[in-house]
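Lab channel / #folding
Pinned by the channel admin:
"Please post every new chain as: sequence first, then the structure tokens as a reply. Keep commentary short and put observations after the output so the thread stays searchable."

First post following the new format, from NK:
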Amino acid sequence: MSEKTTTRGRPRSFDRTAALDAATRVFWQKGFTAASMTDLCTAMGIGSPSLYAAFGSKEQLYTEAIRHYGDTGSPQIGAALESAPTAKLGIEAFLRFSARTLACPANPLGCMVVLSPVASEGVIGLADMVLEERKRSLQMVEARLRRGIREGDVPRKMDVKALARFFVTVQQGMSIQARDGATSRELDAVATTAMQAWPLA
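Reply from TO:
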């Protein structure tokens, strides 16, 4: 009987959420392919039988890790975007929040979703999931601009899709710059420059 089989049904002696958080950080730093099972098990503090019993496979663990990352980060960036009184200030808050968090030394640098290589590598079952997660920011920014039109602080003639894609492209580029060593202050300067592209009424 395999080690994987003998562990099945046993009470888990680890904190699943803490283990998932640890795995998320490994994938965030190394990506799906480069993160080995040894890396994951060491970070999670469990053996491979417990990992398989709890998460099923490396692919399933990665899927949960991406969703865990989104569930913990998206509400905060969404709040920055939505709580501002105007769409312009919301977009600025979105970029400045990103500048602070993407280069935060307490975490792996950059955005796990933006930097994930699985979409380009065509990893079966994961590529589409990552692409869908990347669309979240675009959808959030576009929705905030449309709200601005309804509330009268965004001109009705504005090309919402193009403007949303512009600011999300800036934010995603900031993620790459953060991984390459750009500081929060340097990324904040990018945010300042990007806001100069806000269309005049």
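NK: The longest helix spans residues 58-83.
TO: also worth noting, The chain is about 70% helix and 0% strand.
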